[in-house]
């Protein structure tokens, strides 16, 4: 039998985890001091870290093969939010509330982790220029997907922007945002990250946070995108134009995704779209054009001819959409219907 490390001084926790491990043919090595934990931290052993010793691990580097366990002393005893944030910082696969989470821990102790089957589909929404309406469309599509019964992750690609949470009225919602995730790397489990994210309107959200922050590098993007595709049916990324054109900074190799470029009916926007589309072709990204009607003197057909590419859809101009965005409310009416139709067409 191989050994698992349990770091805890709680006798109830120790007896319980030992029982689960023995049932699966595992031995548990119990450690009770910060020094012992620090010595074993760099190893490849699976460490079960008791909530009572989490403070001893703060400051240690992120590691794989780690789960944090919290003992439930009553039906109303829930995992504290701060424990989820610490778990993300340490790289934990899961925060397990025992005894409710016995099945997960027993399965993990016997090295039988079940991954979600089919990968989720990913859609990137970007704008030909600033103010094109790409963020509003990304939110609208994410909401349409959720209303269609899909599990959705919405990612804010504009790390230094105002934050997509504002468009969803979720700026005060508790949850991890990009500043807490920029150093993420490797495998991130659904059980660890999803409960730590804000989920306005039942859409899991990774948003900017309106504070000075480093930009996530490729390993963080790879980790978050892989998490999303393994955890959700749909991943929607609101990607600013400059970031979208710099694919090496965010796109994992062999990434399968679709890019929609929102082009307002304005001369400068069309000129910017022509440059963006050419660059997309040069880096091997297929982009489709969606026209946002802002000027009736220019039609979708005019833009299609100017860009030499078909227009996938025309988004209606609706003054109420801008008002809703300012209030942190969801767009309704014709715009919401257009987003629903677009999602259904894309999904099927």
From TrEMBL:
One Pfam match: Rv3660c_N
Source organism (scientific name): freshwater metagenome
GO cellular component: cytoplasmic side of plasma membrane; cytosol
GO molecular-function term, one example from the UniProt record: ATP binding
All copies of domain Rv3660c-like CheY-like N-terminal, residue ranges: 9-115
Protein name: Unannotated protein
Any one of the GO BP annotations: negative regulation of cell division
Keywords, alphabetical: ATP-binding, Nucleotide-binding
């Amino acid at each position: 039998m191989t050994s698992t490390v349990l770091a805890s001084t709680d006798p109830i926790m120790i007896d319980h985890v030992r029982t689960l491990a023995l049932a699966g043919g595992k031995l548990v090595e119990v450690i009770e001091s910060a020094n012992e934990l620090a010595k074993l931290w760099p190893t490849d052993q699976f460490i079960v870290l008791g909530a009572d010793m989490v403070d001893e691990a703060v400051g240690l580097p992120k590691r794989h093969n780690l789960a944090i366990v919290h003992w439930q002393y009553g039906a109303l005893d829930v995992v504290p939010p701060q424990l989820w944030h610490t778990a993300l910082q340490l790289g934990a696969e899961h925060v397990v509330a025992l005894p409710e989470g016995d099945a997960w821990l027993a399965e993990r102790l016997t090295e039988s982790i079940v991954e979600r089957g089919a990968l989720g589909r990913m859609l990137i929404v970007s704008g030909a220029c600033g103010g094109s309406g790409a963020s509003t469309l990304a939110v609208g599509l994410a909401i349409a997907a959720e209303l269609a019964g899909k599990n959705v992750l919405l990612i804010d690609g504009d790390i230094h922007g105002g934050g997509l949470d504002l468009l969803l009225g979720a700026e005060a919602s508790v949850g991890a945002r990009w500043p807490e995730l920029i150093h993420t790397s490797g495998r991130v489990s659904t059980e660890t990250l999803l409960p730590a994210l804000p989920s306005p309107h039942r859409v899991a959200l990774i948003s900017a946070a309106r504070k000075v922050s480093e930009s996530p590098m490729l390993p963080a993007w790879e980790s978050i995108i892989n998490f999303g595709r393994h955890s959700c049916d749909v991943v929607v990324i609101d990607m600013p134009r400059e970031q979208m054109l710099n694919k090496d900074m965010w796109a994992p190799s062999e990434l399968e995704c679709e890019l929609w470029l929102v082009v307002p009916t304005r001369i400068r926007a069309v000129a910017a779209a022509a440059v963006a589309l050419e660059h997309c072709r040069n880096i091997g990204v297929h982009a489709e054009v969606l026209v946002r009607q802002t000027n009736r003197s220019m039609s979708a057909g005019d833009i299609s001819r100017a860009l030499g590419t078909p227009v996938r859809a025309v988004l209606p101009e609706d003054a109420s959409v801008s008002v809703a965005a300012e209030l942190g409310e969801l767009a309704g009416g014709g715009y919401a219907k257009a987003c629903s139709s677009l999602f259904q067409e894309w999904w099927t």
